Structure formats: C-alpha cells, structure tokens
Amino acid sequence: MIEKRIDYSISDIKPLIFEGVVEGQLGSIIKAEMPAVVVGDILDIEINGKKIPAQVISFDGNKICLGSFDANLKVQQGCKVVSRFETEAVIKLGRHLLGSIIDPLGNVLERFLDSDNSNNSKIEIQPLITKVPDALSREKITEILETGIKAIDGFLTVGKGQKIAVFAEPGVGKSSLISSIARNSKADVNVIALVGERGREILDFV
User: Fold this and answer.
1) CB neighbour list of residue 204: distance below 8 Å, 6 or more residues apart
2) CA-closest candidate to residue 98, choices 112, 84, 80
3) Within 13 Å, how many C-alpha atoms sit on residue 107's CB side?
4) Are 186 and 148 in contact (CB under 8 A)?
C-alpha cells in the first residue's frame, strides 16, 4: 500500500519549467538570460506562438549563448526561452526517412518516395553528437566500395567504412563529384548532408 502511494505521488509531480528571455543576437549566436542550464541543453525559443529548438553552446558572463537549429531564425529582444529537459539533441532514425529531405532534427520537410511508415518499421533514437569510437576497437577496412567513377575505382580505390575528403576551390566540381558517387555507387542507401551548401544547389542534389 505504501509503495502505491509513493508511485502515485511521484508521477503526479510536475517538473519545474525554467524560463528566460532573449537579450540580443550577434550573427547566428543568440544571447539570453536563463537559469539552471548547462552546455548542451536543448531549449525552445518562443516566437509568434511557435517553439524553435536551440542548443546551449557556451556562456558569456552571466548570459548563455544559443545556437538555433533554424538558420533563418529572426528573434527579438524579450522573446521567451523555455527549458525542455533534454540534455542532448536526438534524431529518430528508420526506414520512414528514406526518400525524404529532413531538417537538422529529423523532421521531414519534403518526401519524394513512399517510405515505410508501417508499425513494423523499426525506429531508433540516436543522439546527434556521439562519442568518438575508440581507435583500437574500429573494424579493419577490408572491402572495396565501388563508386562508379573509373578514376577513383582504378587509381584511388575507396574501402567500405573509409573516410575521404575532397578539397578544391569553388566551382570546379566537388558537388558534382559527390552527386555522381551517390548516383552510381553500389550502396543500398545514400545519406547526403548539405552543410553550408548553396541553396541553389539543393535541387540539383534532389
């Protein structure tokens, strides 16, 4: 009887909601006054009735510095900042994302293929920022990944699990090379992250 009373009382407790206000913005960094937060916390900035997620990235004196997940976010002084009780940004992964364009938090912006939305589709929740795997526990690269680009497959063979980098000045074909690899490589799924890409090039990738 005592255990039931304890369970009921705990479940009935409402968590404290910490609130603050935006005090300024410098470029993409939003400064706010907000109590009881740590670096990495996810907060909501309320603008015109909408809640835009942002992450605490640093402190500046007694102010916190936020990075918004919306690159076009326009805030005003006095906008409310509300805690979400999430210590890290996460994303839901699964077959439901196939053939879709998503935002940084995994919300589907546009869908081009019929994805698997059945109840049998397994969904995994993964943090956006993960720990770097131990160097001694990594698997050896033993299989070839065919990119479909003869110059790469013949002279600069790529292995499954390998990381490669392409460096060149603007306008010489880096994005075109990546899109060719995505189109011609022998891979089941291509995940393309357009970070800092020109807006006009997004449709080319699609």
Assistant:
1) 175, 179
2) 112
3) 9
4) yes
Both tokens of 6, joined, read 């304890």
| Six-digit token string for 15 | 């968590």
Name 103's Cβ contacts closer than 8 Å, sequence gap at least 6.
Answer: 69, 109
pLDDT string in tens for the chain (206-residue length):
555 555 555 556 666 678 899 998 887 889 998 887 888 888 889 988 888 888 889 988 888 999 887 767 778 888 999 887 666 677 888 888 888 888 877 888 888 877 665 555 688 888 877 788 888 888 889 999 999 999 999 999 999 988 889 899 988 888 889 889 988 998 888 888 888 777 777 777 77
Q: What is the DSSP string of 14-47?
A: PPP--EEEEEEEETTEEEEE-SS--TT-EEEEEE
Strands 29-33 and 63-68: antiparallel
What tokens appear for 135 in the block?
């160097």
In the DSSP assignment, the letter for residue 119 is T
CB 32 within 8 A of CB 47: no
SS3 label, residue 146 = coil
Amino acid occupying residue 53? P
Lookup: tokens for 77: 């002084």
User: What pTM value is reported for the model?
Assistant: 0.65
H or E segment at 204? helix 202-205
- Residue whose token pair is 């936020």: 66
How far is 60 from 150, CA to CA, in rounded Å?
Answer: 51
